[in-house]
Amino acid sequence: MLNQLRPALVTLAAMTALTGFAYPLAMTGIAQGLVPDAANGSLIERGGTPVGSRLIAQDFTGDTYLHPRPSAAAYSAMPSGASNLGPTSASLQQEIANRRIAWERENGVPAPTDAVTASGSGLDPDISLENAHGQAARIAVARGVPVSEVTRIISVHAESRWLGLYGQPRVNVLLTNLALDEALPLPPAGND
């Protein structure tokens, strides 16, 4: 019995050291060397204060901002994930219908698919160009500027397919909202 237990324990210790310590440390070191910004979460700071990560969706709700995709995880990285409701779920179909009505009422145009369906993680930081441009008129009215100004900023922040092949053209919501604030600042609250 002891001659079988010893190799098992040595193997357990070796694999724990290899996969639990050595591999994660090596990957962290490689990532820090090659892409330190992404390895550190791509945090964005304004005036020394972190405002968010360009890799994780944030909940923007005001009329002056682009809104992200819906999130089954309430935009929290800890319980991130999908709702686990299947496409035939009456509950999911009703939720999507309610989102569609709300989005179309808010923006005045037909809702694109990504405006009413959550991503698998619930943390997708990007929306489609169709979704972003569909929100432009609402943002322009709320900021008191021409729609062309908002669509120009959206277009400047549009990202194309990765390597020209993968994914869809998209807009990072946080980066675009920060650009909107910089280019089209809102008057301070309470100054009527």
Describe this structure in words.
The chain has helices at residues 2-34, 36-39, 90-107, 113-116, 129-143, 147-156, 173-183, and strands at 43-46, 49-53, 126-128, 158-159, 170-172. With 192 residues, it is mostly helical. The protein has a domain at 50-183. It has a 3-stranded antiparallel beta sheet. Helix 5 (129-143) crosses helix 6. The N and C termini lie far apart (83 Å).
Helices and strands in order:
Elements: H1 2-34, H2 36-39, E1 43-46, E2 49-53, H3 90-107, H4 113-116, E3 126-128, H5 129-143, H6 147-156, E4 158-159, E5 170-172, H7 173-183
Antiparallel strand pairs: 1-2, 3-5, 4-5
Helix pairs in contact: 5-6
Number of strands: 5
The DSSP helix count reads 7
Q: What structural category do the secondary elements indicate? A: mainly alpha
Q: What form results from the Cα inertia axes? A: extended
Low-confidence stretches: none
Biggest sheet statistics: 3 strands, antiparallel
Average pLDDT over all residues: 85
Q: Which radius of gyration do the C-alpha atoms yield? A: 22 Å
Terminal CA distance reads 83 Å
Strand fraction equals 5-15%
N-to-C SSE string, H for helix and E for strand:
HHEEHHEHHEEH
Strand order of the largest sheet: 3-5-4
In which range does the helix fraction lie?
40-55%
